[in-house]
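Good day; I would like, with your permission, to put a structural problem before you. I would ask you to consider whether the tokens describe a fold that such a sequence might reasonably adopt. The full record is reproduced below for your convenience:
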Amino acid sequence: MEFVNPVVSCVANAVAIPIMKHVKYAFTADGNTKALESVTADLRARKNDVKKKIRDAEQENGVATEQAQHWVTQVENIEKEAEELQQKYRQLCRCLCNICPNVWSVYKISKIAANKLAETRSLQQREPTPDRITRVQRPLHHVMPTPSSKSPYLESALRYVKGAEHNIIGILGMGGVGKTHLVMQIHEQLKPPEFDAEVIYIPCSMQCSDEEIQNKIIENRGISKNGSMEQNKRTICKFLSETSFVLILDNLWSCVNLHNIGIPNPENTPGKHKQKVVLTTRSRRVCGEMRVEKTIEVDPLKMDDAWPLFEKMAEKETINSHPLIQKYAVDIVEKLGGLPLAIIAVGKAMYSNKDPSEWEHALERLKKAGLKDVESQCKDQFVFHTLKISYDNLRDETLKNCFLHCSLWPHGFEIPKDELVELWMGLGLIDEPDLQTAYNVGFSYIGELKRVFLLQGDDDEKFIKMHDVMHDMALWIKKDKWIVQVGTNTGSVKIGISNGTEGLSAMKTGATDFSFSSQDSSTKTITLLLNRNHLNTSITLPLQLFSLLTVLDLSHNKLNALPVAICTLVHLQFLNLSHNRFNFGLLPTELGDLTELKYLLLRGLSCVFPKGVLLKLKALRVLDCSHSPFMDGNHEKLFSTLGEVQCLPSFQALGIGFWSMHDDDISEFCNNPTSAPYWIQYPHPRPAKAQLCIKAITVLFYRPIKVKKTLSVNLPHDTLTNQSLINHKCTFDCLQELQIKPIRKQAA
């Protein structure tokens, strides 16, 4: 009997505790919903503060970070869900003097409220710090050097913009002539206090619609989005009618309706506000349809200006190294037609090349392109042939493919460098034995492409861009093998695929669903990018069309679960589901069928792996659950997952977030012996009593970022020893000084 009693007690506790937990929900509905309402109100106030900081920063050429944008979106989503839940509860309580007889309904609402309460508190912890809300937006197009003869265009443009006569100003010229560079110079000049007006820069694309421009204005100015296009039109019109503004529409290919977008007619408020529209285009027809009142036509450079620019790009010493090179260089500049972009790109491609035969070959390619007596649409073809010299001179096919895949992002999009490198990894363009080396190789590729002007961006920025003409040239090269869907949609988008389609991108279209069709029984599609849309239900990917798919990106949508159908795509090697609905819950066991999967990115999601699923993913190298409370509140599952990934033969790195783990759990994780490195996210502010060992510091900066020579770390004094510092300081290659700042224990 003495033996039986402890067993019975143990079993009773194991059964009773979970039951009591659920019974409790039926009696705590009122408390849970009120607590949710209170925390949501606090979260709403924080969100409004963050949005105000974003708007203030935009006045000083700042822009919201992706982390801040994602946090605001998550808060707005949970605000809506909390309000709907509270309305349901209030309706239930209208009967029997606030005592509802429907116990089952009360139980469900109470349980959902408790879960939402945990999510809202987690969002409170993950509120971006002031230095993570905005960043300086440096116009990346400004890097194109142009000769001083361009200044008359700038002077004329500024005179018209600041003057009172012309409301719509057009800048006309062929691709690569310097129109975008000119409007970026205008943007730089229109700063307070000399010019007191809102300056709104909107990059456009070939199929840019009124709605897309409308959405970009809303995003640019931090205006609340109301839903329908008509409602947004009224909101924009009210916002702009009350202020002076200059709207820059860069690279318009067709006419857009300013009235439908919400741009007020300056004639209705004469003299009250200065309201201007500046557009750039390659088409004189667009200028006419947009009722441009003053046109600035940007001409190609004359030889006197083109030659010094080419000499600077190709290096004067190289040109003078051989008489034949001098001759070929002059002929090449003449063939480039005075286009600054082409002069820079070809000059960079020939930099330090002292082989006369290669210069002769470049000249022959330009002669084949030809520019004499051709129509404007053929001039684009000439520009592409010209720029392709820079592409053809890249050192190998890998680097060429890396460049081409940059065009899968929309025109003018700031491409996160990390995201680009990760796509290259998923495609197998970067295949290194460890993640650190893979990132380093990827960033070196970006540097190479920037040096030959195929990409643009500052070294200290986290983003790169493609010049519009470079973007068009890349798509021209892949025109028969890629589909890049652009434009803004609010419903389902239908996309037709051919047998030869290898890559498909429908990024940032605003679609809520996609449907795919083909006249062929199968396709060769290996890359599918549907990220940054509004997918909110399970997406259907026909197996016969995507049987060879290796890369799938569904990040930054509104999915609340992993579509099980995706698990039938057995050749997937890269799957990105990051930043969808917060609570993804239990992942399907079918995930284990993706035995070729190498990269699984689940950032910003709260999810749990069924036991044994990870063990089936034999090829898995990287599991990234950072920026999220990974398995929050379920630490046994965390350590189970850790144990499974350690058994995978190719595993390299695990990204993870600590949000509500106890000190002992964190210490256990940090000291868990494993060959896999980690990068770790902590809540802000970090708990003062967190018992972190020095090993946690070494893994905190695992990802390839620039580490300052002096690193300051706040840790409890009693967790540090001289021995631990000696053992682990060498982990940071460039670290010269490590400052440890003890945290005083809070009074009990």
Notes: The CA atoms of residues 462 and 672 lie 32 Å apart.
